[in-house]
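[step 3/7] fold_predict: job queued, chain A
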Amino acid sequence: MRATETVHAEPRDSIDSPAYRVNFWQRPSPEPAWNLDAYVLTDVEDITEVLQWVDEHAAGRRFEVFVEMNEEPERSFQSPRMTGLIRLLGSNPNAGETVEIVRLEKM
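[step 4/7] structure written:
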């Protein structure tokens, strides 16, 4: 890590209460695939509140925390959120891993 001093500047854009995304990862068996439970947290005071929520709901699972780059309305579970994400904490356990989803064989 490198820290570089900088002058204060006013940001072009600012969101006072951004939405956060939390991914919980759990491996139910020794198989290579991980199960994902994803959440969006809205009306959040700050990252401290997010981390407290993660601590209360992780139940021993690995997790990632992101902040959404743009405001996006809440929709149904079936409608994926499309805004960009900035990772704040954690990592995807599937990153860099090739996982076989299904194998098709000629009969």
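[step 5/7] annotate
The first helix runs from residue 47 to 57.
The first strand starts at residue 20 and ends at 26.
exit 0
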